[in-house]
Input
Amino acid sequence: MATERERMLAGELYDPRDPELTAARRRARLLCTAFNASRDDEPEKRAELLRELIPKAGSGLELEPPFFCDYGHNITLGERVFMNFNCVILDVAKVSIGSRVMMGPAVQLYAATHPLVAKERSSGRELGKPIVIGDDVWLGGGTIVCPGVTIGARAVIGAGSVVTKDVPEGMLAVGNPCRVLRAIPE
Output
């Protein structure tokens, strides 16, 4: 029989009140709180907290506090990722972010979702869908990426966009809902 964590990571309905999941979220919140309270003149402390919170992060991570996530261990970051102030990652499913990705302030990545049918939703069970962001992507400030979305390499997402569908590589996409405008010259 699968654990609630295994169900969560498989994209199946799971119970978020499960003690293992509750403890993992508490751990992540404590680490986020410590990171967010750390000072600019404590780079070693900040780096240690981030390594503990997001163990699958490549080198050169620049993350401006405050930062918030559900678990941290479901996030994979490539090399030289930059996240500006107030980014949020709801990582109930895998969130994979490529190398040299830039995120403006208040970018939100939501792998978490809920059943559409009210009866299922009222049960308290949730589910998640993975998010994949390719190399060299730029997410403008205030961008929201919804569950199950893939953004291809070299894409640029305009500020304030709500990305509900996949964006192919090398495209400029903007708006709510986000729509592809044109290809970006290489």
Remarks:
- The domain at 4-183 is CATH 2.160.10.10 (UDP N-Acetylglucosamine Acyltransferase; domain 1).
- The mean pLDDT is 97.
- The chain has one domain: 4-183.
